[in-house]
Amino acid sequence: MLRGLLLANVLHSILRLAEIGNQKNATNAERLPGWVPRPNEERAAATAEGLVKLGLLRDSPK
Fold it and tell me: Sorting pLDDT into bands at 50, 70 and 90, what band is 60?
């Protein structure tokens, strides 16, 4: 189950990275106290780490 959740999170991050540069309405998220979007670099690093953990990269250990 944890692997499935991690995969879903990684896939979501990949889809979000594909939208970098597109203007989005974050009104709902901005209503949350203390909410701040993660920097693109941090988001990309988290996605890569998730792919490595899942063994989805060609040369990554499983």
Answer: low
